[in-house]
């Protein structure tokens, strides 16, 4: 890994557990992504795309049941999805990966392809319970600190195509076990002490530690299209395997077409995919991080 550099983004992430970077893409690129995403959302709501997050279920696996309503669209880079080339172009872009390298303090050679999905407005109000992405609510304080004490080995983000105020988190909770108040709170508690609503404008991106205490609150009266992605570090192969492979990405990852990417980004994307495939081959069978 390269020598550590002074990075305000990394300092914010380490201190608070999240960092917001404003307006990372051009207006033209944002508009193209909006146009493609409107079509993808319509396709998913009509039952034309089987990989969806259904209302009422927070964690994978999700069944194809669009009549229940959806709150997300999975596998944006699957070449069977119209517009997948635009999503791949963003995912493997320097606009995103330059920030990822800064946060992970690494070079391109360490980056691993992970997930890219879209979170959308549900047909009815829907809330996720308070959680950490790969630490169960039943964990003791000692178990929480054991996991929180290890490197994250990934960068997870929300990239807003329109205004978004859906992510609610407790700054600093990525570095400590839950307080008694947090541990005893209702899973859908409206307000926890110190909580913050992450407010994004169109084109903003929020990176956050996925083991920060957080939840999603989705207002059915507000349009939402937010691209939800993660990029891994090769040092975290086994640690990340369940988090990534539980989403079923292995079924199509070999079919991604990188031909539309610029030369440097194409080679980088192919190498990142190869590291994902290697992770899958070494991990063996994986289950699911959380239930519900």
Automatic annotation (TrEMBL):
GO molecular function: methyltransferase activity
One GO term of the biological process aspect: methylation
Organism of provenance: Tolypocladium capitatum
Pfam families: PhyH (PF05721)
Keywords of this entry: Methyltransferase, Transferase
Record's keyword annotation contains Methyltransferase: yes
Keyword Methyltransferase included in the entry's annotation: yes
Domain of life: Eukaryota
Name the UniProt record assigns to this protein: Protein N-methyltransferase NNT1
InterPro entries: Phytyl_CoA_dOase-like
């Amino acid at each position: 890994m390269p020598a550590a550099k002074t990075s305000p983004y990394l300092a914010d992430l380490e201190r608070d557990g999240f960092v917001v970077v404003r307006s990372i893409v051009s207006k033209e690129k944002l508009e193209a992504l909006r146009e493609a995403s409107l079509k993808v959302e319509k396709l998913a709501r009509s039952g034309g795309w089987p990989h969806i997050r259904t209302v009422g279920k927070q964690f994978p696996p999700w069944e194809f049941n669009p009549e229940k309503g959806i709150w997300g669209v999975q596998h944006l880079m699957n070449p069977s999805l119209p517009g997948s080339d635009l999503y791949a172009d963003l995912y493997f872009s320097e606009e995103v990966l330059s920030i990822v390298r800064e946060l992970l303090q690494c070079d391109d050679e360490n980056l691993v392809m992970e997930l890219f999905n879209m979170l959308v407005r549900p047909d009815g109000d829907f809330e996720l319970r308070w959680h950490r992405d790969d630490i169960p609510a039943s964990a003791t304080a000692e178990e929480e600190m054991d996991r929180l004490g290890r490197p994250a080995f990934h960068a997870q983000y929300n990239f807003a195509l329109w205004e978004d105020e859906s992510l609610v988190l407790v700054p600093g909770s990525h570095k400590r076990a839950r307080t008694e108040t947090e541990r005893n709170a209702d899973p859908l508690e409206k307000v926890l002490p110190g909580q913050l609503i992450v407010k994004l404008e169109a084109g903003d991106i929020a990176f956050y530690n996925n083991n920060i205490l957080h939840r999603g609150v989705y207002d059915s009266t507000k349009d939402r299209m937010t691209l939800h992605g993660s990029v891994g570090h090769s040092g975290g192969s086994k640690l990340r395997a369940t988090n990534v492979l539980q989403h079923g990405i292995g079924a199509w990852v070999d079919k991604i077409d990188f031909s539309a990417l610029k030369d440097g980004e194409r080679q980088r994307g192919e190498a990142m995919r190869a590291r994902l495939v290697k992770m899958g081959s070494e991990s063996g069978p994986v289950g699911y991080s959380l239930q519900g």
